[in-house]
Amino acid sequence: MRFRRLCAAALLATGTLLAPTPASAAVTCDDVYTNVNIGRTPLVPSLERMYGRLCAPQGARTVQVLIPGGTYDHSYWDIGYDPDTRSYTRAQNKAGIATLALDRLGTGRSSKPLSALVTASTQAGAVHQVIQTLRPRFEKVIVAGHSIGSAMAMIEAGTYHDVDGVLVTGFTHKMNYVTVIPVLANMIPARLDLGYLTTMPNTRYDSFHKPGPLVDGAIRFDESTKDVFSATEAVDTILLDTVIIPISLRITVPVLLVVGNDFHFCGNDFPLMGSDCSSASALKADEGQFFPSATRLDTFILNGYGHSINYAPNAPDYHSVVATWTKSI
């Protein structure tokens, strides 16, 4: 068993794929609502509800708690366009791993508090409360995120130390503000609460998918399911999840970091404009300084696509890597 785990770790570090064994058990999916307190103290509670779609193969003992990125809801993890290729949850369920795809507070079917109350740390605290409800049903809990959801996953793991692994996708500590700031500047208010923002119509390909192929059906699905994010979520994301005060220094469990050819986070030869994503090993060397206490850091590059890698035509490559990594820790 130890030999198999060492082999899996080596394959991940080099970007080599090892296909997970498919599970034959039936998958049951349920809508789950968790009451969460986002008040400053127990004496001054602010009770909200966080929604999640829990899909569990029969007998699954491992669950991944999935946090979507800004302007996405839980559907990012279960893309309805060509789901056999692009549905992350379907791929993990086939591998025998349960998934709980969340709507961040303020999005989807979750409660919509005043936007000023919704920060990355608030979201991480809510996810922590959700995680507590999953034990003892599941022996192993992985917290996973995409983009700003990855920032929340790292805050959760570094603060509460209640998970067995962290999956970071579409995010590195070296953000390329040259490309990120224009995307944020083009956001528009989505509600009467002007702090909730979303993308302008027909801008999602350039913002989140480029340089990947422009697949009309995929982009239409993305546009039709787009949601919001709170401007205040970006504040402590920048403070706690970049080079300023990285909360990842306090993560003490295995971490898997996956990015595409993401111009928001990858600078390669230009370190002031993102991390070195030229190869899995280069990314590991660059990001390793931010995970000194993690028991293990693995990296993978999904070539040929931009930021929102679940939409990539070759997304099964990274889905397979995640399933293998999850089983190896």
**What is the strand arrangement across the widest sheet?**
1-2-4-3-5-6-10-11
For the sheet with most strands, the description reads:
8 strands, mixed
- Average pLDDT over all residues: 92
Quaternary form = single chain
What share of residues are in beta strands? Answer: 15-25%
Shape: globular
Number of helices: 11
Low-confidence stretches: 1-23
Counting DSSP E segments of at least 2 residues, the number of strands comes to: 11
Please state the structural category: alpha/beta
Span between N and C termini? 11 Å
The ordered string of helix (H) and strand (E) elements is HEEEHHEHEHEHEEHHEHEHEH
In percent, how helical is the residue content? Answer: 25-40%
In angstroms, what is the radius of gyration? Answer: 18 Å
Précis, in short:
By secondary structure, the chain is an alpha/beta fold.
Q: Which properties best describe this structure?
A:
disordered N terminus, eight-stranded mixed β-sheet, alpha/beta, 329 residues, 11 strands, 11 helices, three-stranded antiparallel β-sheet
